[in-house]
């Protein structure tokens, strides 16, 4: 059993090291995105332009031997541009379905909030049920289907706010900030000297789709004690009665926090969950699912700060 865990650790360390060799100063972001991938979820990546949101998502897809697709969202994009459409074949007088870019193993949806609501709604079914219904026929996605979506938090002109129902389908919302100065210096030196600098197309896969499926199976077997399940329930339940929160987290959030904690534990070399895993993931898993009261927003309160307060005040099982 220990040998199997060590083999898993070596694979995940190699995956993380390959990403960190290209993306500098974003160790936490990388950990959260890999956690999302292992937990069989989807991630919303939010950050300013130029902080490697798209690069990191594309790099992960390169390291997994998977079919990759990128969708650049624009205001004039139609649902059929995402899902695909049926085209009449004159040769056999039949309609033939031509799948859209969403039919891939890992899909990067760039600037998701630039697409109108009707196009964003095309992602609802595929994100939750891993299938698309087109012209009354269901088409299944792959077993490892994952969406990484990006958005810019400051350029709101010409954008559409993602509805709460869609936000709730993301396992995590990962915020990407600026790297530390030493990491940025290392990045500049690599670009100047071209030492260790790799083009994305030259990077070879580290794991196969079958290996990713095996890792996800191991995540489900990662042990989480009953008292930690109770801790998750207490933490999430508190968001529903907190005086500064208008809309609390749903049961889907409880499941997401448990699954993410199991994946995070495996990513950090353990086959069991500890309380710190749950506390560490509370903000990225819960923050985008909550709505503050108007009074709390006027007072300058933030969802992230409130979640941290709840996590600290909720009794941690011993």
List keywords for this structure.
Helicase, Ruva Protein, domain 3, Rossmann fold, 14 helices, five-stranded parallel sheet, 48% helix, 17% strand, alpha/beta, two-stranded parallel ribbon, 318 residues, 2 domains
SSE layout and pairings?
Elements: H1 2-22, H2 27-38, E1 43-47, H3 53-63, E2 64-65, E3 68-72, H4 79-83, E4 84-89, E5 94-99, E6 106-110, H5 117-120, H6 122-129, E7 131-134, E8 137-140, E9 146-151, H7 164-167, E10 172-176, H8 181-193, E11 207-208, H9 209-221, H10 226-241, E12 245-247, H11 251-267, H12 275-286, E13 291-292, H13 294-298, H14 303-313
Parallel strand pairs: 1-9, 1-10, 2-11, 3-6, 6-9
Antiparallel strand pairs: 4-5, 7-8, 12-13
Helix pairs in contact: 1-3, 2-11, 9-11, 10-11, 11-12, 12-14
What's the quick description here?
The protein is α/β, with parallel strands linked by helices. The protein is built from 14 helices and 13 strands. A hairpin with a 2-residue loop joins strand 7 and strand 8.
Query: Structural class, from helix and strand content?
Result: alpha/beta
Helix and strand run: HHEHEEHEEEHHEEEHEHEHHEHHEHH
**Helix percent band:** 40-55%
In what order do the strands lie side by side in the largest sheet? 3-6-9-1-10
> Could you say what the CATH architecture of the largest domain is?
3-Layer(aba) Sandwich
Total count of helical runs of at least 4 residues: 14
